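Please decode residue identities from the backbone states below.
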């Protein structure tokens, strides 16, 4: 990421930006015939390439979540530039690789699994289960490969409490780079928080980070789109985290609460808030973000047991369990 952003001109609002120098480079690019021919070719091929990626998934929930963020980042990069990327990119970037031809981030190789959560917890809570040491995942999870797990059946059987609501895990995806394990977890919340009536009062102007001034809520999405298909009454809550397998600690934690056209974002990565909002990152904003993380702390606790899903599929292969 450092190498990528070192090649990108600083945005106009950056204190070290050079407007004259950037205007000169833009003018030179406009006069470069070979460059313009290449851009026309890419503009012709890119929509077809994106269509192939979007339609090439399995249709399972986690495949859909990954492609949702893939498409979001493509749109932001091509329409608003790299400094418009949302905070979720800080974790989802691990699931992507930079395509130098199209100058966008592509999904890495995926391995998908379907299972009943009941079967996994029966195995996980058995007396002869594995030692609870996340470091063993370094030898189990192949580096740079996305492992996705979609839960079928009644996921609400293992509901988690969250201040007047209950949370049901619908699936998760994980990827390892050395000792770093990045995880995206999809959960459903019932009753939804905030409520649909509370969401209807949001304007989308509640606070925008630098470089995001032109980003607006998705016009093609409504409050109804916040709900998980096949789980009536459960709205989407998406957890993002980076977990250090050596120290057994979360590096950063994010929660995206789906409100239809956009997300409410909570994080304990206060550096992001300070860098994005500057002096406008008030103590109240930071406290509200940390409070949002605390609301879903049980979800992060549940994740510490779910990261052993790759071990389950290896241990139970002889019993008919396959990806």
């Amino acid at each position: 990421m450092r190498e990528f952003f070192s090649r990108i001109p600083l945005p106009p609002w950056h204190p070290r930006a050079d407007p004259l120098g950037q205007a000169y480079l833009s003018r030179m690019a406009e006069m470069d015939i070979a460059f313009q021919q290449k851009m026309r070719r890419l503009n012709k091929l890119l929509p077809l390439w994106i269509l192939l990626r979007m339609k090439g998934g399995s249709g399972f929930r986690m495949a859909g979540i990954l492609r949702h963020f893939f498409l979001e980042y493509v749109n932001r990069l091509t329409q608003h530039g790299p400094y418009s990327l949302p905070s979720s990119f800080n974790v989802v970037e691990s699931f992507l690789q930079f395509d130098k031809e199209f100058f966008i981030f592509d999904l890495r190789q995926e391995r998908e699994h379907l299972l009943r959560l009941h079967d996994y917890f029966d195995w996980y809570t058995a007396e002869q289960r594995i030692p609870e040491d996340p470091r063993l995942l370094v030898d189990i999870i192949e580096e740079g490969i996305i492992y996705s797990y979609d839960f079928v059946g009644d996921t609400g059987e293992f509901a988690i409490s969250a201040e007047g609501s209950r949370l049901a895990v619908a699936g998760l995806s994980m990827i390892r780079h050395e000792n770093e394990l990045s995880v995206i977890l999809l959960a459903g919340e019932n009753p939804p928080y905030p409520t649909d009536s509370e969401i209807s009062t949001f304007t989308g102007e509640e606070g925008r980070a630098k470089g995001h001034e032109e980003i607006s809520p998705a016009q093609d999405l409504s409050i109804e789109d916040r709900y998980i298909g096949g789980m009536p009454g459960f709205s989407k809550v998406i957890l993002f985290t980076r977990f250090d397998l050596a120290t057994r600690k979360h590096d950063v934690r994010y929660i995206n609460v789906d409100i239809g056209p956009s997300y409410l974002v909570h994080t304990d990565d206060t550096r992001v808030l300070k860098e994005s909002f500057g002096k406008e990152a008030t103590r109240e904003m930071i406290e509200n973000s940390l409070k949002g993380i605390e609301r879903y702390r049980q979800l992060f606790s549940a994740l510490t047991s779910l990261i052993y899903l790759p071990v389950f599929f290896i241990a139970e292969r002889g019993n008919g369990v396959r990806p």
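Observation: The chain has a mean pLDDT of 85.
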